[in-house]
Amino acid sequence: MAGYEHGGWKKKYRITKLSGNPVDPKAEYFVLRLDKDPHARKAALAYATSVRSVNEEFAADIENIIRGITDGVSDANWVYKNNFTNTERYVLGQWGDNPLVCIGINPSTAEPGRLDNTLRRVKGFANELGHDGWLMVNVTPQRATKPDDLALDNLSEVINRNRIIEYVGRIKEPVIWCAWGTLITKRPYLADCLDRIVRDLQSILNPRWITIGKRSVKEHPHHPLYLAKGSVVQDFDINEYLKKLKMTNAQV
According to the model, what pLDDT value does residue 178 have? Predict the structure, then answer.
């Protein structure tokens, strides 16, 4: 019999703060076990609804946790960060001790357990290269199956960068696969967004930047979908690439 099925209010847990700061002795806490108690999940979703008006990011995090439990994907080390309306996706992947990070241009419709062809290729190459997980992030978080549908501005750039730093920053020696293709030229703001993502990552990490397969005439890295198995991995001078990309944009 589950604890919530009998008895009244009881004190079962001792609360401490991970920061080491003292707990207010007069504080009242209510601990919910989300994985076992369906009523706790309903309560958490109600809290997400209430808090959304002041912190949409926190609300989305709560809903993603509940979705992971109810979809049965939490045991597969899934990482999934999106916004409440699901019009943006910041991070998708399966965690490991040494996950391969892939940067694309923008997300499509893929979710945990429902990968599209591009992410099946990313997962396959991660395994082929000896990684025990993979993370897919993007230059812009806007979901769009057609690049022409991308907005003319990138209002969620800061949230996207923060999410990328949050997860990639946990990897001790990250290998970052550049895979945005020629689509980096689809909108003027994309090159600037990429530049800021790279600078943020390089400020805290020393990643190995790679491409897989033949690059374009203008050195844009190959998109994962059109790669053959066994395509050659090459180190990528991301700083030199960005320098040339900025010069090209300035001439347009």
Answer: 98
**Domain 77-251 in this protein, CATH class:** alpha beta
Q: Of 45, 47, 75, 78, which Cα lies nearest the Cα of 63?
A: 45
- Overall pTM > 0.85: no
Task: Name the residue with tokens 């991995």.
Answer: 233
How far are the Cα atoms of 52, 111, 180, 208 from residue 102, in angstroms, in the given order? 30, 16, 9, 12
CB 198 within 8 A of CB 93: no
User: Looking at this protein, which amino acid is placed at residue 45?
Assistant: L
- Cβ pair 111, 128 in contact under 8 A: no
Closest of 106, 73, 82 to residue 189, by C-alpha: 106
Q: Are 103 and 137 in contact (CB under 8 A)?
A: yes
pLDDT of residue 41: 85
Alpha-carbon distance of 201 to 137, in angstroms, equals: 13
The list of the chain residues with pLDDT below 70 reads 1-3, 68-76, 249-252
Q: Name the residue ranges covered by the structural domains of the chain.
A: 1-70, 77-251
